Task: structure prediction
Amino acid sequence: LYLEMVTDHAKNPRHRGKAEPCTHIGTGNNPLCGDKIVVTASVNDGIIEHVKFDGEGCAISTASADLMAEILVGKTPDEATSLFTGFHELVAGKGNIDVPKKLAVFSGVREFPMRVKCATLAWHTVLSALEQGNEVSTE
Ligand code: ZN
Result:
C-alpha cells in the first residue's frame, strides 16, 4: 500500500502548481537527496484554502508534498503544526502516532532513515512559510 500510494502521487501529483492568491511562499532544499521545492499557500481568515507545490524531488518528497497539500486544505496554521508533529514522529519511528490515514502510508519511511528528510521537506517548508507570515500586504 505504501509503495503504491507513494508511486501514484509521485507520478501524478494533484497539487503541483502555484496557489492563487498566494499569501505565503516558502522554499525548501534537501541537499542530501537533491530535492528542491517551492510551496505556496493561500490563507484566508486564518484558514488554509489552497496549498500547491512545485520543484524537483524524488518520489518520496513529491508524494509527501502532494498529500500534505491535500490534507492541509481547511486547516488552520496551528492544526498544520500539530499534524506535522504527528507526521514527523510517524516517519522518524517513535511509537504509534494517531495521524490521518493518508499520512499513515508514510510509516514505511521508518525503514529508510535517509529518506526522513525527503518526507518532511514539504512540511518544514510550508510551516516556515506560514510562520514567517509572508503575507502579501496591501498597506
Ligand atoms: Zn528525496
Remarks:
- Residues 30, 33, 35, 57-58, 60-61, 118 surround zinc ion (CB under 6 Å).
- The helical segments are 2-11, 59-72, 77-92, 101-104, 116-132.
- Residues 116-132 form the longest helix (17 residues).
